[in-house]
Amino acid sequence: MAKQREMILIGFLQAQNCSNYVGSWRHPHSATDFLGPEYFMRIARTLEYGKFHLGFFDDRLAMPDILGSDHREAVANGVRVVKMDPTTILSIMSTATSRLGLGSTYSTTYYEPFHVARVFATLDLMSNGRSAWNVVTSLNDSEAENFSQSEHPQHDLRYDKADEFMEVVLGHWDSWEDDAIVIDKETGLFAHPDKVHRLDHQGRWFRSKGPLPVPRSKQGRPVVIQAGQSGRGQVFSARWGELVFCVYPNIDIGKKNYATFKDLVTKCGRNPDEVGVAPAIYAVIGETKSMAEDKMAVIDKLAKPVDGLALLSEALNFDFYSKGMDEAFNDDELQRISGLRAILDRVVNLSGKKNPTIRDFVEFSNRGTVREFPRFVGTAKDVADGLEEWFTGRACDGFVVAATHLPGGYEDFVRMVVPELQRRGLHQKDYKGPTLRDNLGLAKAEIGDWKLKS
Predict the structure, then answer these.
(1) Is the pLDDT of residue 119 over 70?
(2) Cα torsion angle, 139, 103, 161, 453, sign
(3) What number of other Cβ atoms are within 10 A of residue 262's Cβ?
(4) The pLDDT of residue 54 is above 80
């Protein structure tokens, strides 16, 4: 008999004062010690107790300050204005866990490939083979201005550059053969010099000599995460991603986009079964349906209008105070949007307007609200029913679970939903092995296996 599929579960984290839902910090039960290690260690332990595959940090390289060309309103309202380095926090989380995967966002636009290769290879060793790198091309001019540049590069150009960036990083991760290190104290041989290789990359955007001075880990190399959803971004995801995050507004669109993306992976010369697809969701659970709905009502009211406008400005690299709410974007303005173009595509498709207004962006993106992702609200059985429908209906391979408040959002999910999913055989009852690749059902990464067969 064929083995039953088990869903991948990822905890969607932020190295800041709130979860993905900005209003989460306003929740009466949200913890306020997010500037210290115990906050993140507690979340890590909770996710590992629930046998989550991965705890993953999103990231930006600037405070949200495009709305009104000022950071003050975002700061006053706590709109994701604390942005600590997530890899440092993952190192702390690794000491509190032994099996949970540890993923972080790092930009191909503002970092160097050698630096990224070294950071994640080190994290992979220090976590005993549990690290993952989420590859992003960053979003806006504020990030550019923090890195000695005047403006953010155009969308497709960023991905063209990112393709070469990936070749350099993966090339560096191939520097050491698995049996290079000897540590023979009698002969004095530390490692075989003919088993450590220079890269000598000379490309259009990058030059990097190598070798990377960090040996390989138990899983071979970190897992590559991607979340590109625009046309060019999807091609990049299909070529490089091993775990792909997405936003599907409903199950019907999910099924369609999932099938299309898996076909694109095949066309890129890769095995679609080795690329996991996980949409972001919110889940609110109660002992009864009405209790869950009451919880959601409280959560829903935490959002403020400024949350969505600030986040839309950040994500689309456009000041949403520069137009009236019902003033349509002209063609030139839409063309100049250089951030998450997937949001633009979503708003155009759902509104049915070629030139949507500010109000359309607010309404159809639901940015800054708990309605941005599909919501599963009810008892543990209700939520499990909904997740099972998506999973068995081939709309996804698992879920990126975003918390409505922390740490309670994850504690409720692990305490109530996880046992129900495990009872149905839909979620792992224990980890399959010590590395993230083991638990994702991926083989150990071998040198050069990322190169496409000609």
Answers:
(1) yes
(2) negative
(3) 18
(4) yes
Tens-place pLDDT, residues 193-246? 999 999 999 999 999 999 999 999 999 999 999 997 778 889 999 999 999 999
Q: How confident is the model at residue 151 (pLDDT cuts 50, 70, 90)?
A: confident
3-state secondary structure of 433: coil
Query: How many residues does this entry show for the chain?
Result: 454
| Residue carrying structure tokens 């993106």 | 365
| Token representation of residue 186 | 């009698």
**One-letter amino acid identity for 52?**
F
**Please, are residues 254 and 396 in contact by the beta-carbon 8 Å criterion?**
yes
Residue 101 Cα distances to 51, 430, 433, angstroms = 10, 14, 11
> 358-377 burial by CB neighbour count: b if 16+ within 10 A, else e?
bebbbebbbbbbbbbbbbbb
* CA neighbours closer than 13 Å in the CB half-sphere of residue 28: 3
Long-range contacts of 225-230 (CB under 8 A, 24+ apart): 225/56, 225/103, 225/132, 225/133, 225/134, 225/135, 226/134, 226/135, 227/134, 227/136, 228/159, 228/342, 229/340, 229/342, 229/345, 230/155, 230/340, 230/341, 230/342, 230/345
CA distance 347 to 334: 12
Q: Residue 366, SS3?
A: coil
**What would the two tokens of residue 269 be?**
């010369």
Which parts of 127-268 fold into alpha helices (H)? 141-145, 155-173, 231-240, 251-267
Q: CB of 102 within 8 A of CB of 134?
A: no
Q: Tell me what pLDDT residue 51 has.
A: 98
Which class for 122: exposed (0-12), middle (13-18), buried (19 or more C-beta within 10 A)? Answer: middle
Residue 226: its pLDDT value, please? 95
φ/ψ of residue 216, rounded to 5:
-75, 160
| Cα distance from N-terminal residue to C-terminal residue, the chain | 35
| Residue keyed to tokens 């009872």 | 423
Tokens at residue 25, please? 């910090």
Give yes or no for a contact between 199 and 170, defined as CB atoms under 8 angstroms apart: no
What is the per-residue DSSP string for 100-145?
A: -EEEEEEETTTS-HHHHHHHHHHHHHHTTS-EEEEEE----HHHHH
Question: What are the tens digits of pLDDT across the range 409-432?
Answer: 999 999 999 999 999 999 999 999
- Number of helices (H), then strands (E), belonging to the chain: the values are 17, 13
Taking only the tens place, the pLDDT of each residue in 290-345 is 999 999 999 999 999 999 999 999 999 999 999 999 999 999 999 888 777 888 88
Q: pLDDT, tens digit, for every residue of 152-202? A: 888 788 889 999 999 999 999 999 999 999 999 999 999 999 999 999 999
> In this structure, what DSSP letter does residue 310 have?
H
